[in-house]
Amino acid sequence: MKKTIDQISVFMENRPGQLSEILGLLAKENINLRALTVAEVAEYGVLRLIVDDPEKAVKVLVAEQRVAVVNKVMAVSVPDRPGGLCELINMLAEDNVDIEYMYSVFSKTDGRAYMIISAKDVNSLINSLTKHNIDTDDYNDMGIN
Amino acid sequence: MYYQKEIECMDRSRLKDMQNEKLLRQVRHVWDNVPYYREKMKASGVTPADIKSLEDLYKLPFVTKDDLRESYPYGMFAVPLSECVRIHSTSGTTGRRVIAGYTQHDIDLWEDCCARAIVAAGGSREDICQIGYGYGLFTGGAGFHGASHKVGCLTIPMSSGNTDRQLQFMEDLGTTFLCCTPSYAEYLAECINERGIRDKLKLRAGIFGAEAWSESMRKNIEESLGIRAYDIYGLTELSGPGVSYECGEQSGMHINEDHFYAEIVDPVTFEPLPFGSKGELVFTALDKEAFPLFRYRTKDICVLNDEPCKCGRTHIRMAKPMGRSDDMLIIKGVNVFPSQIEEVLISKGYSSNYQIVVDRVNHSDTFEIRVELGAEDFAGSLSRINELEKKLTGDIKTMLGIVAKVRLVAPKSIERSEGKAIRVIDKRKI
User: Fold this and answer.
1) How far away is chain A from the Cα of B372, in angstroms, using its nearest Cα?
2) How do the pLDDT tens digits run along chain B, 430 residues long?
């Protein structure tokens, strides 16, 4: 069975200082960031983080009146050649996997690229990856811990 | 020009006789037919025999919005429903929504009142009258529509919105008389001048009500459209627009005293105050059949003026309302109570921590509601927040009838002053 990994999503208002406050809270508690992306619309944004201790990170943020939740996402390593990502995405599209969002991470340990993928229905993503025998990665593969 | 000169210019002592006669009949009518108010009278130790003239009016208990809530929907009706021909309603849920009933007689007197306003503003059967108030449960469209017919104007029942069509009709059909909210009039004026079509229009006057406006707005509308702009006052509880209206002097609104008796009371002690004092405006409907209210507290802060008017009308005048003794807001011409918004939020599982921000941009009210997002509502995706906002926008539209921009914000981010959240920020400079 392919494993999902935990990603933290934090609601942010679109104003100066928001990101700095949130990252400050995590730094103070010794939480290490592995990947980060920010999605935004006009007035607010969502900060998405892969960290070494997601459970603790959510606890820290919620204690400080932040809206933060854990989402299940998949980390998929992408073949390092032209068209590598394209093949993966084509395959998911053929299997009707509805991708909500994705972003990439580069691992400093093995130099590989990983895609963090969030699907509307995480099981459809797992099934498609399993069917096509695609490698998925856990924290260890990504050089966390 | 007058619509009903014999009434509008009636000698004051004859007017008083007429009012007294109507009052006595009305007290008996309500006592006999409205158990809810009869009980209120009994509780105050008053019977119809105690009311011999207007001098005794102060003995009658007030009617408030709470009474209308308790008697919702038909508890204040004084005639069988078979006698009623229409209802109108304000926005809101059961608690806040007013259901006003009308017999044909009530519709006639209401339309007469509005017709007096149109004629006082210079309207006649020669006019082409474009009605840009909303049609439907709101009284604005229906009141002016009927009145425009009575005066004999060619009536264009445009309803509100759709500016392009409003302007096209105005230009093609030669509209001379316009009825809509003052903020919409300002907006139309701006569009007309931007498009350079002012010279093609035949507009010469308009009546603009249903929301607060200032002398500077009047000046702006009059200058930018080259017309005379008149004010009008009313409320659904009493019939609709036309409880009072401006004459050519544009110096206060004449109250239609043959139908509506006005008092000013101290908003704290409820003691009646003399002419010229500032206080809460209270109305008694003297001869409405279906929905006759005694001493209805409007919550509008106002001043009455009994000095004779140069126009020849003998009915007293009221100033523009100067504010409210409750927290009601008028946004886009619609009455909005913060508690209505609170009700929606709580029923949908949101925190009751919210903030209403009202402003006026390009002559039109903007209405934003900031709501603190709960952790349980946030599933981590932007589309989910967008979905929540859309849903809440829909729920609020169902409650109020107007669209608010709903903005979800971080918990505890709404400003508080001395522990108390600031619920309303009204930035409008009227």
Assistant:
1) 10
2) 999 999 999 999 999 999 999 999 999 999 999 999 999 999 999 999 999 999 999 999 999 999 998 999 999 999 999 999 999 998 765 556 889 999 999 999 999 999 999 999 999 999 999 999 999 999 999 999 999 999 999 999 999 989 999 999 999 999 999 999 988 898 899 899 999 999 999 999 999 998 878 888 899 899 999 999 999 999 999 999 999 999 999 999 999 999 999 999 998 899 999 999 999 999 999 999 999 999 999 999 999 999 999 999 999 999 999 888 888 888 888 888 887 888 888 888 887 778 999 998 888 889 999 998 877 778 778 888 888 999 999 999 988 888 999 998 887 777 765 555 678 888 987 6
Is B244 within 8 Å of B255 (Cβ atoms)? yes
Domains by residue range for chain A, with CATH: 5-71 (3.30.2130.10), 74-131 (3.30.70.260)
CATH of the domain at B196: 3.40.50.12780
Out of A13, A67, A100, closest to residue B381 by CB: A100
Instruction: Say which DSSP state A81 is in.
Output: S
* Rounded alpha-carbon distances, angstroms, from residue A133 to A75, A102, A136: 14, 20, 9
| C-alpha B160 chain-centroid distance | 16
Asked whether this complex has an ipTM greater than 0.85, the answer is: no
Please say whether the beta carbons of B177 and B127 come within 8 A: yes
Rounded to 5 degrees, what angle do the CA atoms B118, B84, B241 make?
A: 25
Q: Is residue B401 part of a domain?
A: yes
Q: Is the dihedral of CA B374, B379, B385, B390 positive or negative?
A: negative
Q: Do A71 and B379 touch (CB under 8 A)?
A: yes
B408 and A44 within 8 Å at the Cβ level: the answer is: yes
* Gap from B379 CA to chain A (nearest CA, Å): 7
Interchain proximity A67–B411, CB inside 8 Å: yes
Structure tokens at B315: 């009915």
What DSSP letter does each residue of B256-270 carry, written as one string? -TTTEEEEEE-TTT-
Which tokens is B54 given? 């207007």
Neighbours of B423 (CB within 10 A): 16
Q: Which residues are paired to B102 by β-bridges?
A: B86
With beta carbons less than 8 A apart as the criterion, state whether B98 and B238 touch.
Answer: no
Q: Are residues B351 and B318 in the same domain?
A: no
- Residue B50: inside a domain: no
**A71 lies within 8 A of chain B by CB:** yes
Q: In degrees rounded to 5, what are phi and psi of residue B285?
A: -85, 115
Q: Which two three-digit tokens encode residue B236?
A: 């659904």
Closest Cβ opposite residue B410 in set A13, A48, A118: A13
Which residues in chain A belong to E strands, given as ranges? Answer: 5-13, 33-40, 44-51, 68-78, 99-106, 113-119
Letter string b/e over residues B66-98, b meaning 16 or more CB atoms within 10 A of that residue's CB: ebbbebbeeebbbbeeebbeebbbbbbbeebbb
